[in-house]
Specification:
Length: 850
DNA sequence: GCGATTGA
DNA sequence: TCAATCGC
């Protein structure tokens, strides 16, 4: 960069933010966006440019100039301005707030003024400040401002424009540049110019006549006649172009230099922003920061003084070695001071968790309950993991380390050093921050009245576990291994050679190359030919192998995913203890892992075989309670659709009712086939399926599927209206909400790519339904758990499977428990349609499903 | 539609 | 990491 020699005082850098937004849009071909759908090309290019500027030039004074949304004086002065300046593409508009945020986080002063474009602000400052000025821009619109005191630097082309350089490059001095461009025009800028006049001719004309006015005043002197004719035809366009190029130098901007001093960057904010924008490389380049959160001391026992503080960060993990469960590593912290208790007992943790006198801030409360061996009834607990999840349930990482880095800018030390104390310190600081954010988002009641107390219920469910019949499972495993061996031999015989029949690649070689069967669709990534159920079932007519393979797959899945893990994970009493992940889904549902007990087969032979393995204690039974059609009922409630609400109010078979509606027949005339189709549509609706998904599910073509959906919406107009309203609301607010005000951000509604946008729309529609279902069953779990304990019953919750609760109940308590469960579940929350619960019980889960 | 798990 | 398959 060549710095201006004229001018007084330090150099001032004026950045034309808008020009970079456009430049980035056209400069990089491949699309760039976050995993959640925000296009980031422009922010990325801009950020890289700004970081480079700050690092290489180290400016003391600079200002980022941006446009405002409001129309400028150009709109007001010229009717046809808008016609010549199409609005900024939506893809770019959504990035503008982030550009502002990046600059703010970097401490760069920002200037924007209603009624003025960035160019006008820069022109005003360039003309009125006495300092040397470098305009940092990604286009040439501002070349006319170049002088001995004002240079223009294009960091993307690495080029400095001095007056000499402008003259050399364009053949006209900077002050004549607007005249020059008024003649040549600029298609990328929608500047018409004079048709047929190129740069050479324009420069020659201006050199000969001096200005645009002069050229037209002495038009008859222009030679050759061809150019004269072009000029005469393009007169209007030329003067319009010039008017559009005129800059205001009288914008009311502060002229005191100190307004434009670069401030200290807010690294914490910048880091959070880069993480959100998924700028991984840039994130790694940020200066490492190790904030000291406070002093850490190691103590033998919990100091008394901690209990007199107002708030405590509380962190614990299992101890080392043989006594990991009895001797915990535990740390507590008040602001600025942490105590590490090397060998605390679960009793210590229990006391702290149960001590309602002060706020205890923890990370993953349910895990602490397990360490404490109990969930004491208490007030004043705050779980930052739950809080962070409620604030944004779409993130993937809710680790304490991640939260500390994001909100406190602190990289926590490893656990063999000061790490334990720092974790407690981080919690003490995160507590008020996240509490405030939760309250501000209206998520307080959901956190403190639902999710936090639910942690205790889930802890008890996990600890009790589910009993499995190990003898039965062992026999089943043996039988399955036997059958798999036979199937394997048979498949090798049919294939004519042995191969790895669990490998899709090898299977597709056998099927499509060796046996010459017709290839079907590709795998989702398009790299291989698919061998999924759909393809294999279709091939079953032509060859016996596919059918055998499908059976092999089903049996193998049963053995390796269900039977073997259950045997492995069962404890000495034959009980398996799943872990419910309370922060694992974007919709608010729970998930279950090690083992996942929420996807135990239910249909077909496999379902029966495996569910018979889940049994009750001697003298107890399993009681299953599932919400009937909870999602469609919620759809009826939200949409207020009369037709749908009536069907539920009258206790009708909802799939049959839907079939009658869309086929225009009376309920009696509904055939099983019609009902099946209606059922798929109803399910599709609840899961946010597209017409495309529906067509695949039903094996019909897209047009037909569309017609079915259209027919549905005609019969249930309230549903259509509600869907449109939800999408509109998501567009306006950026998120959707559930019955209990749970939130989920919906990015991508403004995406230019149709698939991305439609995906976002489906998410926006599906989440309130699925998420409210989660709200209701969580509320019901709290109520059922509370009632059972209040009434002194031994019956207990053991599993939750999204719309089903599974309880283990002493035989003599069955009747009373059934009444309680039905009452609490059906009356969980008043909706405009009734909630219905199906109850079933038996010695095992298969019987309890009947 | 979402999430968990298995196996190459 | 991807493909396939289970549940809701």
């Amino acid at each position: 960069m060549v710095l201006p020699k004229a001018g007084e005082g330090p150099v001032v850098y004026l950045i034309d933010g808008t020009s970079f937004v456009y430049r980035a849009h056209y400069a990089i071909r491949e699309p760039l966006s976050t995993s959640w759908g925000l296009p980031t090309k422009a922010v990325f290019v801009f950020t890289r440019m700004l970081l480079r500027l700050l690092k290489e030039v180290r400016p003391e004074y600079l200002v980022l100039c941006l446009d405002e949304k409001e129309p400028t004086f150009r709109h007001e002065a010229y009717e046809d301005y808008k016609a010549h300046r199409p609005p900024m593409p939506e893809e770019l508009v959504v990035q503008l707030p982030y550009i502002r945020e990046v600059a703010e986080a970097l401490g760069v002063p920002i200037l924007s003024l209603a009624g003025y474009e960035a160019d006008d602000l820069i022109a005003t400052l360039a003309v009125r400040l006495p300092n040397p000025v470098v305009i940092v821009a990604g286009d040439r619109d501002l070349l006319c401002l170049v002088s001995e005191r004002v240079h223009l630097w294009d960091p993307l082309r690495e080029k400095t424009y001095t007056p000499e350089e402008v003259e050399r490059r364009y053949g006209v001095p900077p002050e004549r540049f607007p005249d020059f461009r008024a003649l040549t025009g600029d298609p990328s800028d929608n500047l018409p110019g004079v048709k047929g006049i190129g740069e050479k001719t324009a420069a020659a004309l201006i050199r000969a006549f001096g200005s645009l006015e002069e050229i037209y005043r002495r038009l008859d002197e222009v030679t050759p006649p061809r150019v004269r004719k072009l000029l005469s035809e393009g007169r209007e366009a030329a003067f319009l172009s010039r008017r559009l190029l005129e800059l205001s130098t009288s914008a009311p901007v502060p002229l005191e230099l100190e307004h434009y001093r670069l401030r200290e960057p807010d690294w914490t904010r910048l880091r959070a922003l880069f993480r959100k924008l998924e700028f991984r490389r840039l994130l790694a380049e940020l200066p490492a920061e190790r904030l000291s959160l406070g002093e850490v001391v190691t103590v033998e026992d919990l100091p008394r003084e901690v209990l007199s503080s107002e708030r405590l960060g509380l962190w614990a993990r299992p101890g080392e070695g043989l006594f990991a469960k009895e001797l915990l590593s535990l740390s507590v912290a008040t602001e600025g001071r942490a105590w590490v208790v090397q060998r605390a007992s679960p009793e210590t943790l229990r006391r702290l968790l149960g001590f309602s006198g002060l706020e205890r801030v923890v990370h993953d409360l349910k895990a602490l309950y397990h360490l404490a061996g109990e969930a004491p009834e208490a007030e004043g607990l705050l779980d930052v993991k739950l809080a962070a999840w409620l604030l944004d349930p779409t993130r993937r990482d809710y680790s304490l380390e991640g939260l500390a880095e994001e909100h406190l800018g602190a990289r926590l030390a490893s656990l063999d050093g000061k790490g334990m104390g720092e974790r407690a310190l981080a919690l003490a600081e995160l507590g008020p921050l996240l509490r405030e954010a939760v309250e501000a988002a209206g998520l307080g009641p959901l956190l403190f009245e639902v999710e936090l107390p639910l942690s205790a219920v889930l802890f008890r469910m996990e600890r009790v576990g589910v009993r499995v019949d190990r003898a039965y499972l062992s026999r089943l495993a043996e039988d399955l291994r036997q059958e798999l061996a036979e199937l394997e031999a048979e498949i090798y015989r049919l294939a004519g050679e042995p191969f790895n029949l669990r490998s899709g690649r090898q299977l597709s070689r056998i099927l499509f190359q060796k046996l010459g069967l017709p290839r079907g669709k590709r795998t989702p990534k398009g790299t291989d030919f698919s061998t999924d159920v759909e393809v294999l079932s279709a091939l079953a007519e032509r060859h016996p192998l596919p059918e055998r393979l499908l059976r092999y797959r089903a049996r193998h899945k049963l053995l390796s995913t269900y039977v073997e893990p259950l045997l492995r994970l069962a404890d000495a009493a034959g009980r398996v203890h799943t872990t419910f992940n309370q922060t694992g889904t974007a919709t608010g549902r729970l998930s279950s892992e090690e083992p996942n007990l929420q996807n135990i087969p239910i249909k077909g032979e496999e379902g029966e075989l495996i569910r018979r393995a889940f049994v009750a204690e001697e003298g107890w039974v399993l009681l299953s309670a599932d919400y009937s059609q909870i999602e469609l009922r919620l759809l009826a409630h939200f949409s207020g659709d009369e037709n749908l609400r009536r069907a539920f109010a009258e206790g009708r078979d909802i799939h049959a009712a839907t079939a009658a509606e869309i086929f225009g027949v009376s309920p009696k005339e509904v055939t099983p086939e019609m009902r099946r189709l209606a059922k798929v549509i109803n399910f599709g609706l609840a899961y946010g399926m597209s017409a495309y998904g529906l067509s695949k599910e039903l094996g019909i073509d897209y047009k037909q599927a569309q017609a079915f959906m259209e027919r549905y919406f005609e019969r249930y107009p309230g549903v259509r209206r509600w869907r449109e309203e939800v999408v509109e609301e998501a567009r306006k607010r950026g998120y959707v909400t559930t019955l209990l005000k749970r939130r989920r951000p919906i990015p991508g509604l403004a995406a230019p790519e149709r698939p991305v946008r439609e995906f976002a729309e489906r998410t926006a529609i599906n989440t309130p339904i699925q998420g409210s279902g989660a709200d209701l069953i969580k509320l019901a779990m709290l109520k059922v758990d509370r009632r059972l304990r209040a009434e002194g019953l031994k019956a207990r919750l053991i599993l939750q499977v999204h719309d089903e609760l599974l309880l283990e109940v002493p035989e003599e308590e069955l009747k009373q428990t059934q009444e309680i469960v039905r009452e609490e579940m059906e009356g969980v929350y008043p909706l405009s349609v009734p909630l219905k619960v199906n109850l079933a019980w038996g010695r095992n889960w298969a019987e309890a499903k009947a």
